[in-house]
Amino acid sequence: MSTDDREIEIYRPPAFQPGEKVRARKHIRNDGTVPGREIGEFVVRKGEVGYVRDIGTFLQQFYVYAVEFIDSRAIVGMRRDELVSLDTPAKETPA
């Protein structure tokens, strides 16, 4: 993995803010971090709506958005390219 400045996401402001309404762009399976769900089980379905609760970082390079999905009753860590804002629809995030 290159450490080229263009690939270090945290050099830019976060794409989403706490409280922002977002939609999942893909299905998300449990990787073992969602209690009470089997590993490999779908936790979030593509198109499901949630709200950003918090923003963290991973490997001092990427933002991870803690998103609460009400219908799934789950809080899931999501990356920028897995979400689209519903509060500002024109704000499509680059993949």
Mind explaining what this structure looks like?
This protein has 95 residues and is an all-beta fold. The protein has no helices and seven strands. The protein has one domain (15-85): SH3 type barrels (Roll). The chain has strands at residues 21-24, 28-29, 42-44, 49-58, 62-69, 74-78, 83-85. Strands 6-5-4-1-7 form a five-stranded antiparallel beta sheet, with no helix packed on it. The two termini are 17 Å apart. The relative contact order is 0.26. Belongs to the NifZ family. Keywords: Nitrogen fixation. This is NifZ family protein. InterPro entries: Nitrogenase_MoFe_mat_NifZ.
Summarize this structure briefly.
This protein is mainly beta and 95 residues long. The chain has strands at 21-24, 28-29, 42-44, 49-58, 62-69, 74-78, 83-85. A five-stranded antiparallel β-sheet has the order 6-5-4-1-7, with no helix packed on it.
